[in-house]
Amino acid sequence: MTRPLIVANWKMNPPTESSALGLARDIERGVAPFRSVAVVIAPPFPFLAAVRRVLKRTHLGAQNVFPAPGSASTGEVSPAMLRDLRVRYVIIGHSERRRVLGESDEIINQKLKACLKARLVPILAIGEALPDSQAVVPTVLFQQLSGALRGISKRELRGAVVAYEPVWAIGTGQADTPDNATRRAIYIRKLLTRLVGRRIADTIRVLYGGSVTAKNAAAFFNRDIRGMEGLLVGGASLRPAEFIQIVASVARCWEPHR
Ligand code: PGA
C-alpha cells in the first residue's frame, strides 16, 4: 500500500515571507518523526523559493500553473519555472479557481498536460458544488475527471493524484462523513480504471479535502479497504500545531504499533 499523502494548501496565506518561513519551519520540524506519511507544503508563488530552503523531508507544491507555451503570458507562471524551484506537486482545478476564475475542464486539461510534460505531479481537485445534490455527484465527478484527462496517454498518469473535495465542505467546518468519502474514493477509482485502465489507476492516489481537522483526519483512513489515501488540508494547515497533529494521527492509524 502507498503511504498516505497529506497536502498543506496555504491558499493566499500567510501575508509575509517571514511568517511563511516560520510556518514551514514549524511544520517541517513537527512532521519529521512521521515517516510513514508523505507531506507536501503548497505556499503561494512568492514564497516558494524561500520555503524550499527550509524543507528537508517535506515536498514543495504549487497551487497553480499556466499551460501556454512561449513567453507572452503576462502574470503567469510556467511549469519550467516551477521545476526550476524544485516544485514537485501542483494543485490543479481547485474549486476556488473553477468558481472565482471560471476555470473550465478544458483549461484544467491543458494544465494537467503541461504539468505531466514537465514531470510535475498533478493533484487534480474535483468535487460537486452542493450538499443536496448527491444524486448528481457521480455525473459531476465523471465529467470533471474525463474532461481533465481527455487526450492524455495513460502512461503519463502513473503516480498522479486526484483530490475529492466536495465544494460545500471547503472552509465551512462541515466535512463529509468518512463513510461517504470512502464511497467516493472507491467510485473515483472505478472511474479511473474505466478511463486509464486498472494498472495505471492503481498508481493514482485519491485524497479527501474539505474541513479536515486534527479531530476528524484519521477517520478518513481505513486499512481494510482501499479508500482515501491522503488529505488536502486548507485552513488547518495554517495552524502548525494542528497540522502536525493531523499528520501524527494519520501516521498512528497507518502504523498502529508505533
Ligand atoms: P479547508 O480547505 O481545509 O479549509 O476546508 C481545503 C481546500 O480548499 O483544499
Written overview of the protein:
The protein has 258 residues and is an alpha/beta fold. Helices cover 38% and strands 14% of the residues. It contains 9 helices and 8 strands. Helix 1 runs parallel beside helix 9 (240-254), helix 5 (105-117) crosses helix 6 and helix 6 crosses helix 7. It starts with a strand and ends with a helix. 43% of the residues are buried.
Describe this protein with a few key phrases.
258 residues, alpha/beta, eight-stranded parallel barrel, globular, binds 2-phosphoglycolic acid
- Helical/strand content category: alpha/beta
**Spatial gap, N to C terminus:** 17 Å
Order of helices and strands: EHEHEHEHHEHEHHEEH
Helix fraction? Answer: 25-40%
Shape: globular
For the sheet with most strands, the description reads: 8 strands, parallel, barrel
Give the bound compounds.
2-phosphoglycolic acid
Q: Secondary-structure blueprint of this entry?
A:
Elements: E1 5-9, H1 17-31, E2 38-42, H2 48-54, E3 59-62, H3 79-84, E4 89-92, H4 95-100, H5 105-117, E5 121-126, H6 137-149, E6 161-164, H7 178-196, H8 198-201, E7 205-209, E8 230-233, H9 240-254
Parallel strand pairs: 1-2, 1-8, 2-3, 3-4, 4-5, 5-6, 6-7, 7-8
Helix pairs in contact: 1-9, 5-6, 6-7
Bound molecules: 2-phosphoglycolic acid.
